[in-house]
Amino acid sequence: MEELPAIELLEANHTFPGPYIFKAIGRVDNGFVARVVAAVREELAFETDPPFKVREATGGRQVLAVYRRIRTMAGLIFLW
């Protein structure tokens, strides 16, 4: 990942505190989902796992190709 979104961009598009959706794309091996959920839980100091959904893509390479293409588009402000 190249850079994190600027706080100004986040505050311009979201009301904090409030719900926020993090999307992580990764390989399902090596406990990826559990590690992502644990990272969010630890960072937010939750006692239990936060609500989350897992959606496996058939053809994950296609998902990554779409993200790569969209990232090069003029006018893109934020992609998640």
Q: What low-confidence regions span 5 or more consecutive residues with pLDDT below 50? A: none
Roughly what is the average pLDDT, rounded to an integer?
A: 85
Report the principal-axis shape: flat
Largest sheet: none
- Structural class by secondary-structure content: mainly alpha
Could you give the order of the helices and strands?
A: HHH
Distance between the termini: 11 Å
Q: How many structural units, i.e. domains?
A: 1
Query: Helical percent range?
Result: 40-55%
How much of the residues is beta strand, in percent?
under 5%
State the oligomer.
single chain
Number of discrete helical segments:
3
Number of strand segments: 0
* Spatial extent as radius of gyration: 15 Å
Description:
The chain has three helices and no strands. It has 80 residues and is mainly α. It has one domain.
Keywords:
single chain, mainly alpha, 80 residues
How are the secondary structure elements laid out?
Blueprint (H helix, E strand, L loop, with lengths): L6 H7 L18 H13 L15 H12 L9
Q: What's the quick description here?
A:
Helices cover 40% and strands 0% of the residues. It has 80 residues and is mostly helical.
